[in-house]
Amino acid sequence: MKIHEYQGKEIFRKHGINTPPGFPAFSVDDALNAYDQLDTEIVVVKAQIHAGGRGKGGGVKLAHSREEVEILANEMLGMTLVTHQTGPAGKEVQRLLIESGADISQEFYAAITLDRAREMDVFMVSTEGGVEIEKVAAETPEKIVKVWIDPLLGIKSYHARKLANGLNLTETAFKEAASIFMKMYACYQTTDASLIEINPLILTGDGHILALDSKINFETVMPFFVIKILQKCGI
């Protein structure tokens, strides 16, 4: 089972993972109310579908005013969004995420899943954020840093430090990234997810680490608290 980005970010926040403020919108009125609540000039209007590549397909756009939010919400809701993952038929956009804009200095990739061959969890990071990891693996595999984690022992601080080192981070950003990696793994185990991915994980202009996206997949029955979060967000 896949969940939407805004639902994944709600789960992230429950685990202390920093994300931009944002609200789901199922109508144009919802989008305008979200803009008013965020109380910031620049927001991002993001189509919510179960597929990657939304930005290239026109499903992620900046809005600089309430009027632009209204225009974009009218354009996106009900549109058929075609990306490299949807196939030519595309997917209808039935909901949006209205989110505060972020000052992006650098983009990274971070993900956790099960390495079935080793029977261990693998945590991967890359400096090539915003790019499909398959493309990075095929063209520049040396840019993917991996650590394998025994699920019975869990993640250790040295794992997190190695991952943060792999992103060439220093000082505050290093500490925040290592902390987020620890929290990501706790989220992965607590929710019994089959995949947790942040692409991009960003370094902001003022030197902080932020989860700008979320992808969480499940293969088994979800814990009750996850179901409640999804119900709260609107499944």
Characteristics:
alpha+beta; D-amino Acid Aminotransferase, Chain A, domain 1; Dna Ligase, domain 1; 34% helix; 2 domains; 235 residues; 7 helices
Total number of domains: 2
Distance between the first and last residues' Cα: 11 Å
Radius of gyration: 18 Å
Would you identify the CATH architecture of the largest domain? 2-Layer Sandwich
Looking at CATH, which topology of the largest domain would you report?
D-amino Acid Aminotransferase, Chain A, domain 1
Structural class: alpha+beta
The largest sheet, given as strand count, sense and whether it forms a barrel, is:
6 strands, antiparallel
Instruction: Quote the average pLDDT.
Output: 92
Q: What is the N-to-C succession of helices and strands?
A: HEHEEHEEEEEHEHHEEEH
Tally of helical runs? 7
CATH class of the largest domain: Alpha Beta
Relevant CATH superfamily of the largest domain: ATP-grasp fold, B domain
Strand content: 25-35%
Characterize the overall form. Answer: globular
Helix content, binned percent: 25-40%
How would you describe the overall organization of this protein?
- This protein has 235 residues and is α+β, with helices and mostly antiparallel strands.
- It has helices at 5-14, 28-38, 66-76, 133-139, 157-166, 171-191, 224-233, and strands spanning 22-25, 43-47, 60-63, 80-81, 91-92, 96-100, 104-115, 120-126, 144-149, 193-204, 209-211, 215-218.
- It has two domains: 21-100, ATP-grasp fold, A domain (Dna Ligase, domain 1, 2-Layer Sandwich); 104-218, ATP-grasp fold, B domain (D-amino Acid Aminotransferase, Chain A, domain 1, 2-Layer Sandwich).
- 34% of the residues lie in helices and 28% in strands.
- The strands form three sheets. Strands 7, 8, 9, 10, 11 and 12 form a six-stranded antiparallel beta sheet that branches. A four-stranded antiparallel beta sheet has the order 1-6-2-3, covered by helices on one side.
- Strand 10 (193-204) and strand 11 (209-211) form a beta hairpin.
